[in-house]
Amino acid sequence: MIQRNPTRAIRIGGLAIGGGERIAVQSMCATPTTDTAATLAQLKQLRAAGADIIRVAVDNNKDADALIHMRRESEDAAAAVVSVDLQENYRLAKVLAAHVDKIRYNPGHLYHHQRALSWRDKVADLAELAVRHDCALRIGVNAGSVDPALAESHGDDSVGAMVTSALQHSAHLDRLGFTRYCVSLKDSDPNKVIDACRRFAEARPEVPQHLGVTEAGMPPEGVEKTRIAFEQLLSRGIGDTVRVSLTVRNEEKSMEIEAARRIIDDINAGRVRSVVKFNPDKLNLISCPSCSRVENQSFVDLAQAVKQRTQHARDHAITIAVMGCRVNGPGETDDADLGLWCGPNYVNLKRRGEKVGAFKYDRILDALDRELHAMMAESPS
User: Fold this and answer.
1) Is 273's pLDDT higher than 70?
2) What does DSSP assign to residue 18?
């Protein structure tokens, strides 16, 4: 069995993570939150697959009203352990805290609203709401949306910026007397996830960690990237709850739960692989997990088409990112050699952070081909 770090236990609804409790497996609804019928069906599907915690994205008041309605009126929604993802509007916590079990906020998104207030004041508001309404918190640090000031101060050390952000927020919650929180440090590169989580665990071994490789991509590669990170972290005792983030259609979301359980079982049984680094000399496709933020449901089909269309470049050290929304799209695609982030009607194409143009969905693959061939010509394998 995995020997885990002695993190403190925190309660999330009817379960606990950390403190020697079994590793909890999470997933996230990919349906539009306002489509209550579809979201309830996905909640039921994920619970049936064995999800311990289910995350739901809330971006505006309509999303919030829909989630509250589901929690009040549906037995399936009421029975689920629900974590709300606040996206860019932390103020929605005032509306939602009484109706969810955990609030996930992104430190890098706190500056979007009420800029006259410091992030410390905003986190204090979140902690007060969490205490009043019996919620846990997750400090969800994401490589693509680190606070701009921290990112600038750390230069090329993106992992250092992530860890500093997590440590700052952890220390601030501690000063406020709030310790019912966990931390996640996510990147699309499993090696950076390993580095970040190990650094944080060395500094704060008592804080429970949620593990995941964000935008891991499509199976089977997305599962393999995540396996690499989980093997290197869980085998060192780091990690109290996990998610395998896959780009799959809504009806296939339970694959995230199945993959996570399989990886955990393999590590427990000693069935681990010697791979430490995801192959840096090959084509690397990054794509985010489908979620309710996706503004065009063609996103998953596009990601799969990109995978098929780019096989001729598999022996080139080129990273292509396909992002499904405006939240992760701009930042995550900046770090890729070629980045696509999807809007309702157009797909924005970037080349090493510089915008190439916006293309309709039926034209984007041709545009990607042109940029990819030019890049291959510059750096032959």
Assistant:
1) no
2) S
